[in-house]
Amino acid sequence: MSSKESCRTELRTAIRQLSDRCLYSASKWAAEQLIGIEQDQAKFTPSNTRFQRGSSSIRRRFCTNEITSTPPTDVAYVSTPVMEEDDAIHGDFYLLAKSYFDCREYRRAAHVLRNQTGKKSVFLRCYALYLAGEKRKEEEMIELDGPLGKSDAINRELVSLERELSTLCKNNMIDPFGLYLYGLVLKEKGNENLACKILVESVNSYPWNWSAWSELQSLCTTLDILNGLNLSNHWMKEFFLASVYQELRMHNESLSKYENLQGTFTFSNYIQAQIAKAQYSIREFDQVEVIFEDLLRNDPYRVEDMDTYSNVLYTKEYFSALSYLAHRVIMTDKYRPESCCIIGNYYSLKGQHEKSVMYFRRALKLNKKYLSAWTLMGHEYVEMKNTPAAVDAYRRAVDINPRDYRAWYGLGQAYEMMGMPHYALHYFQKSVFFQPIDSRLWIAMAQCYESEQLHMLEEAIKCYKRAANCNDTEAIALHRLAELHRKLGHPEEAAFYYKKDLERMEAEEREGPNTVEALTFLATHYKTQKRFEEAEVYCTRLLDYTGPERETAKSLLRGMRIAQSGFPSMDVEHFHP
Amino acid sequence: MAGAVKAPGVFAITPHKVSVCILVHSYASPSQISVPFPFSSVSQHSRLGLYLLALAKSCDDILEPKLDHLINQLREIDGLMDDWLTDHVTSRLSSLSSPDDLFNFFNELRETLGGPDSGVMDDDQVILDPNSNLGMFLRRCILAFNLLTFEGVCHLLTNIGIYCKEGISSSSYERRLDYSGNDLESLSEYENMDLNLVFKKINEEMEARKRATDQVTFHLHLPKDLSTLVEDVEVFADPKAEHNDKGRESSSYASGDLLRNVDPDNGVFLRTNWQIQGYLMEQADAIEKHGSSFTLNAFELTLRQLQKLAPEFHRVHFLRYLNNLYHDEYFSALENLHRYFDYSAGTEGFDFVPSAGCNDSGRFEIALLCLGMMQFHFGHPKKALEVLTEAVLVSQQHCNDTCLAYTLAAICNLLSEISFSTASGILGSPFSPMTNVGTSLSVQQQLFVLLKGSLKRAESLKLKQLIAANHLAMAKFDLTHVQRPLLSFGPKTSMKLRTCPIIVFKELRSGYHLISDFCCEGSTMTTDGAFSTAWLKNLQKPMGSLVMSQDSGSRNNSNPFLFFSQPISIPGSVLQLVGSSYLHRATAWEMYGSAPLARVNALVYATCFADASSSSDAALVHVKLIQHLAVFKGYKEAFAALKIAEEKFLCASKSRILILKLQLLHEHALHRGHLKLAQQACDELGVLASSVTAVDLELKTEASLRHSRTLLAAKQFRQAAAVAHSLFCMCYKFNLQVESATVLLLLAEIHMKSGNAVAGLPYALASLSYCQSFNLDLLRASATLTLAELWLSLGSNHTKTALTLLHGAFPMILGHGGLELCARAYITEAKCYLSDPSFSVSDNPELVLDPLRQAADELQALEYHELMAEAFYLMAIVYDKLGQLEQREEAASSFKNHVMALDHPHDVDDPILS
C-alpha cells in the first residue's frame, strides 16, 4: 500500500525529472496530481490548502461513497529511481540545449547536443528533433493543401529517429524516457504492436510519465488489447485503467476506478473532470454541472474538458451560463479547439447555425481529429437542412472513431429526414450496437420501422421494448408499445403496456391525452373481458375528464350495469357530479 | 469538410513540368539563327518539337514520368547530338539550388514567348506563339509558378532535388563507365527499369480502356453493374464472375504497379482529380468484368494507399465496395457502400449526368439503387426489393427520372430472376401508379407492367443502353411467359395461350440498334489525351527510325496525324449488351429446339464478343458449347473441351464450369449405370444452390430433376415419382412453366418404366400441351416419342398409333435431337415394327435392322449401356428370326458385354480421374 506521503514523494521527484527532460505535459499532469493529494491535518496551513479551498460541501454531497483506503496496489518501487546525471561540462551543454528547447528552438537545441552521449542528452536531442519534425509537419500540412485534400506531410525526422532509437534499444542503452519516445515514433510510423510493447516497457520501468500512459491508452482500442498488456502494479496503473475504461465506454468501471483514486487524490482537478466526463456519458447532467461549477471555481482559467461542460449547458438550455463560459474561455485562449467548440455550441443554442458551423470549422482546423466538433457540426447542418453536408460531417466523425454512437445516430436521422428509412436503419443499427443502453436510439430505430414506407411493426415493437427497458426518460416507448399492440390486435399486451404507462404517468404526476387514451382502452378491454370491477375503476377515473371520452365512459358504465344486474338500470345520472 | 475539395484539374507545377519547360526553352531559345545552336538540322529540331508537343499534351496523365524515363526518351530523339539535350536538362535542373534560381528560370521562359502582337515575326527567329500548344503549356506553367507561395516554391525546390537524385542515380546504369555505381544503385536501377516497362503497360491499358468507357451516360458504374446483372443473371442463375487469363494478367499488372507508382517516395506524382477518376473507372470496369480474378487484398492495399494520398477522393470507397462485392465480403461491402455515399452524397463522379433535375440535396437514390443491387447480389431478394422500393420513392421525390428508370429495370431484373410465389405484399404502395390496373395481378403480370413502364421511361429519356437492356429483359419475359390480357373480362375467344417467338426475336433485334447508334457517334468521342499518349507510345516503334533516317523531303509522308488515327471504338458496355443479345438468342433457340441455330449464336458470341464479355458470360458460352458437344458428339469430346475450359476459367465454387462438370459427370455416370457416382454428382449440385427459398431456383430444379432421374435409373419408382412430384409443385408455385414441361415428361417416363403406362399417358399429354404453348419444339418431339413408347407398351394393337406419332416427330428428332434422343427413337421404331403382328421380319429385315444399327452406333459415343443392350438384344432376336446365326451370336455377345458393363460400372476407367 502506498501511503499518501509516498505518493507525494514519488510525484515530487518525478516532476523534477520530467521537466528536466522537457516532458512538460507529463510534469504538468503529475504536479496537478501532487496538489490533488489531500493534506495531512498536521501540516494543515492556510497557504497549503489554497488549492483545496474549493472542496465545498457541494462536492462532498456527490462523493457518497467516501473511500478511506488508497487504491489497492502493491508498490513495486521503493522510491523513485535516481536517474543518472551527466557530468558538469556536458551538463552545461545540456543546460543551454534545455534553454533553447524552452524557447521552442528545437533544432538549435538538438544541434547543441549533437555530440553528447549521456542518456539524458540523447533523449533531449531526439525529443527536440521529433518536435522540430512535428512542427514542420504542421506547417507543411497547411502549405501543401493539395487538390485532393492530400496531406502527405510527414514528420521527416521519424526515419532517422527510429533508426537511432532502435539501435539504442537493441544495445540496451536506453532509459524509460527514450523508450517512451521510441514508442511514440513507432506509433507514428504505424507499427502499433511494437509501439505497445515498448510503451509498456517504458511505463513499467518509470510509471510517472503520464504522456507514455496516454499514448498507450490511445493504442488500446479494444478490451482484448488492454487485457494483453503486461503491466506491473502501481497506482499510476489505476489512472491508466480508468482512462482506458472511459474510452472503451465502460463508464461504470471507469467511475469506480476514479472514485477509488479520489481516496488519495481527493482534490485532483483531473480526476474531477474525468468523473464529470464519465457522468456525462451516462447522462447524469445535474451532477456534471455541479462538478464543473466546482472545478471552474478552483481553476477558473481551465479550458480542457470545458466543451463537455458546454454540452451540458446546451442540453439544459442555460443561455447566459453558456455565454459566460464562452466569454471566459475566449479570454483565456482563443485558439483552442475547445474554445471554438464552446462558442459553436452557444451560437447553436441561439439558433445561429451558420456562425456555429464557422466556429466548429475553426475547431476542426485546429484539430482535424476533434470528434465531437464533427458530430456537432453535423447537427448544425441538419438544422440548416443541408443534409449532404451533415452526412459528410457525421461520416467523418465515424471514420475517426467508429464507436461514436452519436454520429451513427445522426447519420440515421439525416437519412430518415430524406425519406429513406430503410437506408437509415443500417445506421441506427450501428448506433444501438455501440450504445445499447440509450433509449433514444432504440426509439429512433423503432420510429424508423414504424414509418409508413417500412411498416415493420413487429420489429418496431422489439425496439420499443428495448427502449422501455433502458430507462426511457421521455416515456415514449411504453405508450407506443401499447398503441402498436392495440393496432396489431394483441389486446392483452396492449392492456399490459397501457397499465404500465398509466402507472408511470401517475408516478410522474403527468396527465394528458395519453392518460385518457389508456383509461379508455383499459375500460373497454376489461369490459370485453368481463372483468367489470376493473373496468369500473377505469371508467370512474375517466369521468374526471371532459370530452367525448367521458360520454363513452358513461355508456360503458351503463352497459356494465345492465350486464351485471340483468335488468336495465335507469339512472346513472347520480354519478354525475 | 463538406465542399472543401478543390476543383478537379488543378494544374500544379512539378519537377517534370520544369524539365519540359527547360526543353521547350532550348527548343525555342531566342537566338538569331533558324536552327538554334544544338540542333544540326531542321528535322532534328522539328522532331524535338513534336516530342515536346506530345509531352505537353500528356501533362495531364495520371503518372508523370521520372527523370530517367524522360532521359531515355530524349536519347532516342537526340541520338545524333551526343546527349546534348539530356546533359542540358540534368545540368539545368541541378543548377536550380535556390528559390531565386527558379524565379530567374521562369523569367527567362517568359522571354521565349512572343508578345501578343507578334504578328510581325522575324523569319529567322523562333518564337513561340502564345496561343500554340507549347505556348499555352508554358503560360500555364508560368502562371502556376507565379501563383505559388514562397513555401510552395521551397517545396518545388525540394521536389526537384529528389527528382534529380533519383533520375541521376538510375541513369548511372547506362553510364557504368563514368560512375562506378555500387550495388545499391544498380538495384534501384532494376526497379526503375521495371517501373518504366510497367508504366508503358499501364498507359497502353488505360488508354484502351479509356476509349471503352468514354461514353458512359449515367452513374459511371451503374450501367455496367446493371448490364452485368442483366447478363449474368438473365440467362442462368449465377452472377459469380469468372475470369480468364488475360484479365488476370492485366489487372495484376495494374494493381501491383499503381501501388509502386503512387508511393510518394518514388517521386512519381499523384495527379489531378480527373486522372484518378479515370484510373478508378478503369479499375471498376476491370473488376466488374473479371470479378474475382482481382486479388482482394492486393487491390485493397492499392486503394488504401490511394486513399491515404487523396483522402478527399471518395470514389476509392466505391472501388473498395466493388472489390469486396466481387469477393463476397458482405460486411465490408456494405460498410464501404455506405461510406462512399455518405461522403459523396452520390454526386461525385457523375460528370455524365445532365445537370437538369439535380438539386443540392444529394443523390441518395443512387445509393439506394446500389444497395438494392448489392443485396440482390448477395441473395437477399426480399431486402433488395425493400430497398429498391425506397429508391423508387426517393427518385420520384427528387424527380430523378434516370435513376427511376434504372431502378425499375433493376426491379424487373430482380422479379424475373427471383420467382416469388405470391404477389401479395411484394410491391408496395409506390408501385400503385404503375400497377394501378388492379391489385389482383400475379407477380408475372406485375413484372410485365413494370417492364413495359421501364422501357417506356428509358425510351423517353433516351438511355440507349437501358433501352437495349430492357429489350433483352422483355425478350426473356416473352420467351418464358404466355401473354395474357391484363384484364380478364370480356370475350376470351381470341386469346391464344402461346408464347410468340416472333415477339422474342423482335425484342432481341431492337437491342441491336444500340450498336449502330454507337458506331455513328463513336468516332467523335475520342479525347485529346488519348491521342498524345498513343503518340508517345508509338515513339519507340516505327516512327523513331522513320523520321530519323529520312531527310526533310520525305517528311511529309510521315504525317504525325497518321499515328492519331485509331479504330472506331464502341464502348465495352455496349458490346457487352449486344453480345448478351446473342447469348439470349442462343438460349432462345435452345428452348425452341433448334440445335444448329443455338450453336451458331453461341459461336458468334464466343468469337466476336470474347474481348468485351465479362468472364461469367464467356464461361456461359463455353458451357453452352460444351453441352452441345456432349449431346451431339458424346462425352469423350465434351470432357476434352471441359478440360480446356477449366484451364481458361478459374474453377471457383459455384462457377458455371463447375456446375457443367457435375452435370456431365452425372449424365455420364447415369448412362454407364454407375449410380453411386451419379447420386454423388447430383448431391454436389444440390449443395451449390443457396438455401434461401426462391434463390438459385434454376440450380435447385436441376438438382432435384437429376435426383429423380437417378432414382429412376435405380428402379426406385416410388421415390423417383415423389421427388418429381414435389419438384412439379415447386415449379408450379414459382411459375417455372418451361421446367414444368420437363418434369411432367419425366413423370410420364417414370410411370412408363414402372409398367403403368396408363398412368403415364396424362402426364405425357400435359407435357405436350405445355410444350405447345411455349413453342418448345424439341421437347415436344421428345414428349411425342415418350407418348409413342407409352402407346406401344399398352399392347400390340396400339402399335399403329405409336408408329404414326413417332413418324410425325421424326423430322424434328433427327434434325435437332441429340444422340440419345435419336437412338431412342430408332429403337422405338424397331420395337413398333417388331411388335406389330402384321409385320414379318423376314420380308423386310432392313426396316428393323437399319434403325437398330444406327441406334447402336450413336449410343456408342454416349456409353449408354442400357439402351445399347436393348438394341443388341433386339438385333439378336431379328437375326435369330432370320436364321443368321453368326450375326446373332455376335449381337448376343455384344448384348452380354453391355449387360455386364452395366452391372460392373467400376471396371471402366473414369474420365475425371484420367
Task: Summarize this structure as a short list of keywords or feature phrases.
heterodimer, A: 577 residues, mainly alpha, Serine Threonine Protein Phosphatase 5, Tetratricopeptide repeat, 69% helix, 0% strand, disordered C terminus, B: mainly alpha, 37 helices, disordered N terminus
Description:
Chain A: InterPro entries: APC8 (IPR007192), TPR-like_helical_dom_sf (IPR011990), TPR_rpt (IPR019734). Chain A: Keywords: Cell cycle, Cell division, Mitosis, Repeat, TPR repeat, Ubl conjugation pathway. Chain A: It comes from Hibiscus syriacus (Rose of Sharon). Chain A: One of its GO terms (biological process) is protein ubiquitination. The complex is a heterodimer of chains A (577) and B (914). Helices cover 69% and strands 0% of the residues of chain A. Among the domains of chain A are: 1-33 and 88-140 and 153-210, Serine Threonine Protein Phosphatase 5, Tetratricopeptide repeat, CATH 1.25.40; 483-564, Serine Threonine Protein Phosphatase 5, Tetratricopeptide repeat, CATH 1.25.40. The longest helix of chain A is centred in the N-terminal third of the chain and has 25 residues, at 119-143. Chain A is elongated and about 115 Å long. By secondary structure, chain A is mostly helical. Chain A has 30 helices and no strands. With 914 residues, chain B is an all-alpha fold. Mean pLDDT of chain B is 71; it is low at 1-9, 172-271, 349-360, 428-440, 486-495 and 521-568. Chain B is elongated. Among the domains of chain B are: 15-115 and 125-169, no CATH class; 808-913, Serine Threonine Protein Phosphatase 5, Tetratricopeptide repeat (Alpha Horseshoe), CATH 1.25.40. Chain A binds chain B through residues 139-140, 143-144, 146-152, 361, 364, 381, 386-389, 391-396, 399, 411, 415, 418-423, 426-427, 453-454, and chain B through 1-8, 10, 12, 149, 151-152, 155, 264, 270, 272-273, 276, 309-313, 334, 338-339, 342-343, 345, 347, 360-362, 364, 367-368, 371, 386-387, 389-390, 393-394, 397, 428.
